[in-house]
């Protein structure tokens, strides 16, 4: 099976690629940094199983994301699984090339565009699955269209939470819209996982925090199951957690909010589709 993973050069994405390659799958690492992607590819090829390709994908730019999606569609023709994994936590206010707050832009809107551009390619597979990396941190966010471009005071946790809530609402909205198609959509919280995502935290804080974190292999196991396992073959619109409670906030359960965000996002990416 052909499985594309965004942000797969490190962390949870890399650990997932490793488990999939060990099961003989064809994994495509979609990464912003080509050198890091090649290094990850070499480590995976050394396992001597499966197949591993790389493709450049910078979710910080809608134009670059659209071009990457076109390249993927041309190169592969069909895809069995899309894992929307890439993400970042930004301690300070930063913007994407299109002027969106970076976490909203990279974690969510870039993936929204990528996914839509790849739906025709996913439809070429007999059955396809999309797995969205959300987070328990969605509880810290709500959807505020006037904050998509981060005007005013910047609270990093709110913005990370908004992006992860958007990932979960997107999974729910797509699950409903694609209910009669060959594609399923599910989301997960990977748990508190030791990875580079905490790179902006002060080192002593991270060292203490790390005591409660699980290794990347834990969420990778769940993601692999959601991506190719029999137990997830016919599941759609669900939210799972790798090692913490899978509780959804009231915003995350709000189907109207999911539809409103979907329509608003469609307007934001329309010219790149
Ligand atoms: N770790 C946790 O505790 C935790 C908890 C809940 C949810 N999550 C979610 O799990 C996912 C994976 O996180 P992780 O912990 O594995 O983090 P990570 O180790 O920092 O990996 C994140 C990946 O995203 C890539 N990325 C960042 N900006 C990008 C961009 N503009 N375009 C393309 N790729 C980009 C990174 O590339 P570079 O290496 O080039 O930076 C890296 O490959 C994220 O969506 C995160 O929100 C993580």
Automatic annotation (TrEMBL):
Domain of life, source organism: Bacteria
Coiled-coil ranges from the UniProt annotation: none
Recorded GO MF terms: oxidoreductase activity
InterPro entries tied to this protein: NAD(P)-bd_dom_sf, SDR_fam
Keywords in alphabetical order: Oxidoreductase
Keyword Disulfide bond: no
Recorded family membership: Belongs to the short-chain dehydrogenases/reductases (SDR) family.
Protein name: 3-oxoacyl-[acyl-carrier-protein] reductase
Record lineage: Bacteria, Pseudomonadati, Pseudomonadota, Gammaproteobacteria, Moraxellales
